[in-house]
């Protein structure tokens, strides 16, 4: 064999055949491997249901890593959401969902419950919140579905709320959890986004008290997040270093959902 | 006499083929996102000529409630799409392959002659190097389109934190329209590309896998032609 090889160099035809065999062979093998990897990913097991759920385990890992990458790279508390003149705000404010706020509610009876670090509870009435400095915000509300609308909201800045009610210790953990009174809808917000100076506990829409559909009597307006994080009808606020439960993150959406 | 003529580098071939499924996944997952609120349509004075997309698409592909799935795939594969594009671009610049790719002064005029030839209107095509004038324009444009998709994508993804980029891309709405139009552009490119590949024959197709093509007689090397 060795002798044969030395004596007869490959003919042109043989060279072409050999190179084609090698390149198409490798092409076929790698193509099949790529197809196999795709099949594996597409049918990979769902993540273990916990704070997040509803997507495949490798995709959730990617979502979490991507989140951290973009948080570290781009989040800056001084980056403000673009605001608009109040005349540009929509008169018919779009409404998508009533999860957690279907039933009628009495604003007089309602109280905001804040669970402090020492487990003690603050009960705050709407009047107490309304007495504080009101902030108006006209911005482009963005839904994860892809629609957006310029809307006008008014309320208490979340950072003012934290300061007024002496929640300095509570501002230290990494996350805020908000939940509707019936516990049907809940979101987890990272603290830097919560205390962003445009984040509101809103009680007014277009200068009037919030209608039922838009989260009467108090809702979260957090312009640095998609609409899914803008919880309607806040019931309870908690603080934690672990990610609090999040309704849409349990349905396969990105936990952070930041803009 | 037949000879083996080296045509495509290994990097060019593999970034090309890797890009093919990546772009497929990006378009597919992008549609799952788009379908959550399919607002684009072509309307002229009240009459809708085309709506992206028809009900048939939804029925065939079982679209509802797949927004989160689309986002999860889109935000994973964007990394590979971006890295593959950056790697290819840097390789092309460093290796000097850009010389046979980037349009020359004469390319825009010659591209018409290529088109006329391809449509069998004119019999002779202008002389060409590795790529003809139309290919130079199309293949360079597709690289710019890829960069455009990444940049408009980032502008939509982080319109607050990367607001400067969103502004450069023409604002949130325009960036989304660009992002969508670029996708339509890929589909159009793909259709023309496939037709051209079929017309060019097996030898041409095979060279994008194997790197070489078989010439029937000795020809000057490409670097020679360029001089």
TrEMBL record, chain A:
The chain crosses the membrane at residues 21-38. SUPFAM superfamilies: Oxidoreductase molybdopterin-binding domain (SSF56524). Residues 104-248 form the Oxidoreductase molybdopterin-binding domain. The keyword Membrane applies. InterPro entries: OxRdtase_Mopterin-bd_dom, OxRdtase_Mopterin-bd_sf. Pfam families: Oxidored_molyb. The keyword Transmembrane applies. Keywords: Membrane, Transmembrane, Transmembrane helix. This is Molybdopterin-dependent oxidoreductase.
Automatic annotation (TrEMBL), chain B:
Its main location: membrane. It comes from the Bacteria. It is found in: Cell membrane. Gene3D superfamilies: Transmembrane di-heme cytochromes, Chain C. Pfam families: Ni_hydr_CYTB (PF01292). It is a multi-pass membrane protein. Residues 8-202 form the Cytochrome b561 bacterial/Ni-hydrogenase domain. The chain crosses the membrane at residues 20-37, 71-94, 137-157, 177-202. It comes from Mucilaginibacter sabulilitoris. Keywords: Cell membrane, Membrane, Transmembrane, Transmembrane helix. This is Cytochrome b/b6 domain-containing protein.
């Amino acid at each position: 064999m060795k002798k044969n090889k030395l004596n007869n160099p490959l003919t042109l035809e043989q060279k072409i055949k050999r190179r084609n065999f090698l390149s198409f062979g490798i092409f076929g093998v790698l193509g099949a491997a790529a197809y196999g990897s795709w099949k594996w990913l597409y049918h990979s097991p769902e993540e273990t249901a916990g704070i997040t759920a509803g997507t495949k385990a490798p995709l959730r890992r990617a979502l979490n890593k991507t989140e951290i990458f973009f948080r570290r790279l781009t989040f800056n508390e001084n980056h403000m959401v673009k605001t608009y003149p109040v005349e540009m705000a929509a008169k018919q404010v779009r409404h998508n969902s009533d999860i957690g706020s279907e039933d009628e509610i009495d604003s007089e009876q309602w109280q905001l419950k804040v669970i402090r670090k020492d487990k003690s509870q603050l009960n705050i009435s709407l009047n107490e919140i309304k007495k504080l400095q009101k902030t108006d915000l006209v911005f482009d509300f963005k839904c994860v579905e892809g629609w957006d609308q310029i809307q006008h909201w008014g309320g208490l800045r979340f950072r003012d709320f934290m300061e007024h009610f002496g929640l300095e210790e509570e501002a230290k953990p990494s996350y805020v959890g908000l939940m509707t009174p019936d516990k049907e809808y809940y979101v987890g917000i990272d603290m830097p986004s919560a205390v962003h100076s445009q984040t509101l506990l809103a009680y007014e829409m277009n200068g009037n008290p919030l209608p039922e559909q838009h989260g009467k009597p108090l809702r979260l307006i957090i312009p640095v997040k998609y609409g899914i994080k803008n919880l309607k009808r806040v019931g309870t606020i908690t603080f934690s270093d672990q990610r609090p439960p999040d309704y849409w993150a349990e349905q396969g959406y990105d936990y952070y959902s930041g803009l | 006499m037949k000879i083996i003529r080296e045509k495509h580098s290994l990097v060019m071939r593999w970034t090309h083929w890797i890009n093919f499924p990546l772009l497929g996944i990006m378009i597919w997952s992008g549609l799952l996102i788009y379908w959550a609120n399919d607002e684009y349509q072509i309307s002229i004075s009240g009459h809708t000529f085309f709506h992206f997309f028809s009900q048939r698409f939804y029925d065939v592909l079982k679209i509802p409630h797949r927004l989160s799935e689309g986002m999860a795939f889109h935000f994973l594969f964007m990394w590979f799409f971006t890295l593959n594009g950056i790697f290819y671009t840097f390789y092309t610049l460093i290796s000097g392959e850009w010389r046979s790719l980037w349009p020359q002064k004469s390319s825009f005029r010659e591209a018409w002659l290529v088109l006329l030839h391809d449509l069998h209107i004119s019999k002779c095509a202008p002389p060409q190097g590795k790529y003809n004038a139309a290919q130079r324009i199309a293949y360079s444009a597709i690289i710019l389109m890829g960069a455009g998709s990444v940049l408009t994508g980032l502008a939509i993804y982080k319109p607050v934190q990367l607001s400067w980029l969103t502004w450069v891309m023409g604002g949130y709405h325009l960036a989304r329209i660009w992002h969508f139009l670029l996708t339509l552009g890929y589909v159009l490119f793909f259709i023309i590309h496939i037709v051209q590949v079929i017309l060019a024959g097996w030898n041409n197709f095979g060279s994008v896998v194997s790197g070489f093509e078989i010439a029937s007689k000795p020809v000057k090397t490409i670097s020679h032609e360029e001089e």
